[in-house]
């Protein structure tokens, strides 16, 4: 134990041995150095109980996980991401236009950014325009039945906001932790009893699986497909490559595609609304950011990838600091697959090892005055940044299993903030609670949303 901040914390959750790690060197040991013995994730039962949850990258294990990850990693290469910029820009412009037509009203940025990120990932993963940002809801040209899409998204929104990582979600999860052997039989019983969380989760999972399977089957039957969205790229590979067909059977394709929607929407939306919330509270940060954005004058211009990566260093610092202050994934889960030594302790096989970015990100050793929003602490020229351990800041996780969508989401977040701040500045609504409250779902979210007012910028 370190004073005030733990670095390695061993305990039992029910009968499950657990270790929580919150020291950069130990995180490196768990996430990188001992990866061979700790390569899989421990998962909340609500997630692993769903057919969609079981077969995505998050839950798959060992050789299957690495084969799947290697096969799809090309979709996250810079050239592919660069080709998505115009699509992202179109949706971002729609969201900014929505703000323009509601300029005299409060905007719940959490809802708007969730719609934005869902529309973007819907296009990038499924090749479908979910049309959430289209006020008339008439933009969907790719799907025969708009109601199907609306229903699907409703279920998806429920799944992302109601499955709890804590123990409030389902009785079978609590029981499973105390007596693991009882988890499955109890889940089987509870999911037949109306009103239980287990039943609601089960029904949502069934509906979502059915809808995703339908979208995948329809796309699989199409003769010509795009080469841009995730689903089409995997199906195209299956058409020509036997190894790909063996790896990506329809159930795995459904799970992977849905996982992109789940992982790609909530956490990106949370980061965008968190940045707006924090920038609006700090006029000195806002001023510096506007100067950087105006220097480049991106109003109504499509930025290319080089410009985006090289011309906005302060924006990079602002996003990092927002992710540090409000860490969307406070815990990164792993499980030992054999006996292994970490930090001088022997951990038995099947120990849950949880890395705690939230604790790391608030440790004054790495981030002096940790509760102060100060983007400059990430300036590469600043002493604090130079001195900091490279794994003290890990909002996207660590090692070979870290977030595959990191560059995708950063591109989306940067484009969004540049476009929004080229047209508006934002102030908190008087309805915004203080201090802000959080909701601990699959990822963290703002309990009541980020409520802001937009002010149109002169000459923009
Ligand atoms: C701000 C946005 C995001 C944050 C903060 C975030 C955070 C994370 C974290 C902490 C992990 C666990 C990493 C680990 O275990 O070391 C993860 C994994 C993952 N994320 Fe993200 N993520 C974001 C956006 C996205 C996007 C946009 C996508 C998809 C397009 C995505 C897809 C995934 C997948 C598939 C995994 C599992 C990777 C694997 O096990 O191989 N994420 N993410």
UniProtKB/TrEMBL annotation:
Coiled-coil parts of chain: none
Single GO MF annotation: monooxygenase activity
Cofactor(s) the protein needs: heme
Binding residues for heme: 403
Transmembrane segments: none
Alphabetical keyword list: Heme, Iron, Metal-binding, Monooxygenase, Oxidoreductase, Signal
Position of the signal peptide: 1-22
Family the entry assigns: Belongs to the cytochrome P450 family.
Protein name: Cytochrome P450
Organism for this UniProt entry: Dioscorea zingiberensis
């Amino acid at each position: 134990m370190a004073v005030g901040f733990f670095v390695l914390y061993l305990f039992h959750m029910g009968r499950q041995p657990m270790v929580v790690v919150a020291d950069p060197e130990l995180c490196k040991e768990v996430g990188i150095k001992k990866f061979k013995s700790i390569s899989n994730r421990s998962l909340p039962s609500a997630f692993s109980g769903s057919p969609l949850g079981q077969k995505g990258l998050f839950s798959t294990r060992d050789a299957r996980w690495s084969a799947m990850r290697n096969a799809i990693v090309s979709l996250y290469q810079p050239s592919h991401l660069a080709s998505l910029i115009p699509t992202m820009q179109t949706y971002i412009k729609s969201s900014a236009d929505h703000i323009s037509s509601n300029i005299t009203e409060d905007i719940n940025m959490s809802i708007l950014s969730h719609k934005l990120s869902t529309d973007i990932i819907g296009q990038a993963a499924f090749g479908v325009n979910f049309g959430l940002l289209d006020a008339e809801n008439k933009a969907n040209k790719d799907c025969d039945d708009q109601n199907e899409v609306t229903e699907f998204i409703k279920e998806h929104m429920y799944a992302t906001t109601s499955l709890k990582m804590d123990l409030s979600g389902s009785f079978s999860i609590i029981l499973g932790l105390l007596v693991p052997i009882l988890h499955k039989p109890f889940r089987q019983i509870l999911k037949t009893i109306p009103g239980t969380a287990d039943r609601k989760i089960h029904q949502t999972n069934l509906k979502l699986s059915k809808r995703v399977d339908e979208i995948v089957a329809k796309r699989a039957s199409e003769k010509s497909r795009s080469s841009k969205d995730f689903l089409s790229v995997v199906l195209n590979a299956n058409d020509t490559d036997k190894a790909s067909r063996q790896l990506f059977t329809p159930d795995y394709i459904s799970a992977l595609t849905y996982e992109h929607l789940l992982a790609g929407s909530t956490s990106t939306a949370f980061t965008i609304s968190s940045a707006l919330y924090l920038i609006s509270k700090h006029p000195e940060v806002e001023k510096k950011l506007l100067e950087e954005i105006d220097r480049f004058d991106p109003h109504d211009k499509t930025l290319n990838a080089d410009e985006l990566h090289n011309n906005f260093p302060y924006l990079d610092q602002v996003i990092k600091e927002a992710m540090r202050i409000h860490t969307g994934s406070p815990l990164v889960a792993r499980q030992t697959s054999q006996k292994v030594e970490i930090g001088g302790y022997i951990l038995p096989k099947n120990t849950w090892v949880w890395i705690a970015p939230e604790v790391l990100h608030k440790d004054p050793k790495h981030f002096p005055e940790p509760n102060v929003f100060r983007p400059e602490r990430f300036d590469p020229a600043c002493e604090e940044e130079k001195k900091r351990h490279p794994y003290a800041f890990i909002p996207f996780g660590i090692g070979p299993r870290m977030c595959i969508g990191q560059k995708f989401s950063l591109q989306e977040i940067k484009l969004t903030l540049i476009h929004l701040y080229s047209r508006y500045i934002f102030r908190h609504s008087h309805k915004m609670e203080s201090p802000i409250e959080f909701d601990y779902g699959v990822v963290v979210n703002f309990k009541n949303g980020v409520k802001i007012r937009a002010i149109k910028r002169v000459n923009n």
